[in-house]
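USER: For my understanding, would you kindly supply a protein sequence with its structure tokens?

ASSISTANT:
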Amino acid sequence: MLLHIDASKHAWLQQGRHWDLITILDDATSEITMRSWWRKKGRGR
């Protein structure tokens, strides 16, 4: 099994805060095995 991990930072929600969407999916089947939202605390975007 080969897993692909991808992350994308974006102002996903209309509040303007930036969130990271972390996704792990199976490379062969494209099945999403994990998906999680993370918000950075502190300074910066």
Summary: Strands lie at 3-10, 19-26, 32-39.
